[in-house]
Structure formats: C-alpha cells, structure tokens
Amino acid sequence: MYRFLLRPRWILLHLLAGIMVVLLVNLGFWQLHRLDQRQTFNSLVRSNSSASVTPLESILTAKTTPEAVEWRPVTVTGSYLVDDAFTVVNKSQNGAAGVNSVVPLRTTTGLTVLINRGFIPLAQSVPPPPGSIVSVTGFLRRSQTRSFGGAIDASIGVVLEWQRIDIPRIDAQFDGDLAPMYIQRLDSNPREGEWPARVINPTLDNGTHLSYAVQWFFFSACIVGGWAFVVHRRIKSDKSPK
User: Fold this and answer.
1) For the chain, what are the domain ranges?
2) Which of 68, 113, 118, 71 is nearest to 93 (CA)?
3) Contact status, residue 134 vs residue 109, Cβ threshold 8 Å
4) Could you read off the pLDDT of 104-143 as tens digits, one per residue?
5) Does domain 51-189 have CATH number 2.40.50?
6) Segment 56-106, tens digit of pLDDT
7) Which of 37, 61, 114, 214 is the most exposed place for a label (fewest CB within 10 A)?
8) Whole-structure pTM value
C-alpha cells in the first residue's frame, strides 16, 4: 500500500518538503536569535544610558571592555582638532539624507577622542566646530565595523568622507593615538547651533523578529500539512474500489 512512497517522484517530493521544512525552521530560530540579541542590546542601552554622567578618563581605561561601557554618558573637555575634521556619509535622520560631522578632540589630559557632533542634511553646509576650549557630554560608543554588503572605505591614504567610524582605520591617518571608543554628542559648552543635530537614539523595541519567526514556523507547518494531505489522498485513492 505504501510502496508508492518509494517511487522516484515521491522520493523527490519527500526531499523537497524536508529541505523546505529544515530551511524554514532554521529561519524561524534565526529570527528568535535576532530577537534575543535585540533584547540584550535594548537592556544594555537602557541600563548604561541611565547612569550618571562620568568623566571620560574614569571609564575609558586600559582595562575597559568596550562592550560593557557602551552607551555610558561621559563628559570630556578639550580643543577640537579642526584641521582633522571629516564626515561620515550616507546618513539619514527624520527622512532627510545627510552626513555626520566627526572631529577629533584633544583633551586637557592629552587624550584624543573622536566626537560625533551630529547629523547635517545634505542641503546644509557643515558648520565649523567651536575653536575654543569646549566641554562635550555624550554617549560612549564602540568603533563601527562593516556589515555584510556594506560600503567599503579606502584601506590606504587620507580619507575625508568615511562610511563609518572605524577607529583603527581612522587612527592610521592621525598623529598620535585615538581613544578606542568615540563619543556621540548630546550637548556641549559652548553649545552648537541648529546644526549639527543630535544623532537620534536607537528605537528600543523588539522589532518584527517574533512575528517573522512565527511566520516561518507557520509556513513550515503548512508544508508538513500539505505533504501529509497529498500522501493521505493517494493512500485513500488506492483503497477506493476500482
């Protein structure tokens, strides 16, 4: 009665159904893994960003683990190295395309740290940073890395327009050493004008990962159900009187 299941076309059907189920189930678990990563990220941002503002040198030490202190609010005082300013391109904020203005700041203790001053629309020119001593308060952020399929920065030479704040690569075109993390500006004294605007903080929600996971599991169940229906229909047909 069940010998038909071993015929070539039925074996092909079993294989296709099995491959699709395995693929869809793994996509579902991948989305659950992404959900777990996002929840961990949200928890870190909420916890660290609510801490009290601390001097940069008190947090960023030789023993600091960047992953543990990211999003901590810090303050630093020094002078912008205006001649070494650059932009990070292909940014968008509130529906507008633009760039981020980044300038190294030499602190009063001799440390050089990159400051992401904020977002500037393409229609606006990049305003120069304050030329006097400035105190900056902002979130401590990790060096950025290229995501899969992301644009590539030049590996050699002096670059003035970057795709991301890749500190080790940027450090190669500066005299001295840059701090291993940068600061995303929240405020400064003296204050900046309307531009650059503060970079918008990430949205701390679970996104669509759970709904996508449910969809992938549902589709895999549909395939199993469809396979069972086709097999049952054939068996029922074989049992029917000729």
Assistant:
1) 9-39+206-236, 51-189
2) 118
3) no
4) 999 988 899 999 999 999 989 999 998 889 999 999 999 9
5) yes
6) 999 998 888 999 999 999 999 999 999 999 999 999 999 999 999 999 999
7) 61
8) 0.86
